[in-house]
TrEMBL record:
Its EC number is 5.4.3.8. NCBIfam families: hemL (TIGR00713), PRK00062.1 (NF000818). Pathway: Porphyrin-containing compound metabolism; protoporphyrin-IX biosynthesis; 5-aminolevulinate from L-glutamyl-tRNA(Glu): step 2/2. Belongs to the class-III pyridoxal-phosphate-dependent aminotransferase family. HemL subfamily. It comes from the Bacteria. It catalyses: (S)-4-amino-5-oxopentanoate = 5-aminolevulinate. The keyword Isomerase applies. This is Glutamate-1-semialdehyde 2,1-aminomutase. It is found in: Cytoplasm. GO terms for biological process: protoporphyrinogen IX biosynthetic process. InterPro entries: 4pyrrol_synth_GluAld_NH2Trfase, Aminotrans_3, Aminotrans_3_PPA_site, PyrdxlP-dep_Trfase, PyrdxlP-dep_Trfase_major, PyrdxlP-dep_Trfase_small. The modification N6-(pyridoxal phosphate)lysine is found at K275.
Amino acid sequence: MSAVPADVPGSQAWFDRARGVTPGGVNSPVRAFAAVGGTPRFMASGAGAWLTDVDGNSYVDLVCSWGPMLLGHAHPEVIEAVTRAIARGTSYGTPTTTEVELAAEIVGRTPIDKVRLVSSGTEATMSAIRLARGFTGRDLVVKFAGCYHGHVDSLLASAGSGLATLGVSSTPGVPASAAAQTIVLPYNDRAAVEAAFAEHGDAIACLITEASPGNMGVVPPEPGFNAFLAEICHRHGALFVSDEVMTGFRVSRSGQWGTDGAVEGWTPDLMTFGKVMGGGFPAAAFGGRSDVMALLSPEGPVYQAGTLSGNPVATAAGLATLRLADESVYAQVDDVAATISKESSAALTEAGVPHVLQSNGNMFSIFFGDLPPVRDYATAQTQDVAGFKAFFHAMLDAGVYLPPSAYEAWFVSSAHDDRAVQQVLDALPAAATAAARVSTGSTSEERA
Ligand SMILES: *Cc1c(COP(=O)(O)O)cnc(C)c1O
């Protein structure tokens, strides 16, 4: 087992310097370790399942860049595709062939007719909502508490993820008028959805949902819930926007829709993608029905654009990643996720730590505490964050890099081989014991 020293002077020095020039020392809030304490690790390199920090400590990576690295870090064929692309120049501001091939790969794996490439998941959801409003001529957007769709003004209400981690429910800077256009409902609650549509149905442009939420921890839709959402939107002339930025090309080759709509026979009107499809570069997309997408400029009047949209290097990385992501990759990722999730749960049980393991295919997370099954954000918020924090640090000390937040999914890659998995398994008993010491649900005897 590779122990990481308590002291990480390199990361600490860089963090101090970073705080002098960047708010909180980070460029995305959860990276700062605010929820778990301690020094965020400045990573210097990644290879396969492993990350190495600036002090030379290595970790098995269970974050995978928050989802994108389905094939692991520095996959040789992705690096080769990127290297070849870079040698041809990095951006032209013209159409390129790789964009077309990536778009075709996305359309080929999903039920959408047309797709537009953008640079981040935030841009994808923001643009999808503008398009839904332009298409319907309506303003209201329905979202679910605990679902994160990027930092779009109208979508930041009860947005899970980083806001949940930092304990903020809403953010200054979003105009009241933008918030007033958003209806926030409890997840998995059909009655609440029925009531919202009964009251506002003819003013709702779209309902947006994570296809299977992973930003309040993993909280899968109850069977038939997405089909119900598609149907009620259809009934009221609203668009159903399925956000697959996290799940797309990760939980299956066709994302969550591949195990859900493809089986039950329904399709979203619009979908959003990001993370895996960029192969570790800033690339994302939104797409859907051809009659809706036809409204987008230059074909239609709804404006949307991007200087670096469809960037030749990013699309080369995304295309190489998707072409490599075949059934054997998903089988390997599913298998590793099953092993790590089950063994983590078993170690916690063994140590007497109450918890709930939830998974959706190869995405999973563990809610610490004596909870019922977590079907919504309100329940997720009752988890024992102190238990997670102790577990997180013990794992980190043993060379396993978990998401530094109790509200995030854990991710693995097809590069997580036996050696990487074994390092995780070896770290579990001590981490479970550390959690038992602080866990609110355990008996005093177990705590002693
Ligand atoms: C990560 C994520 C986003 C935002 O994507 P960014 O690239 O971080 O802007 C949107 N929706 C979901 C479901 C996500 O997981």
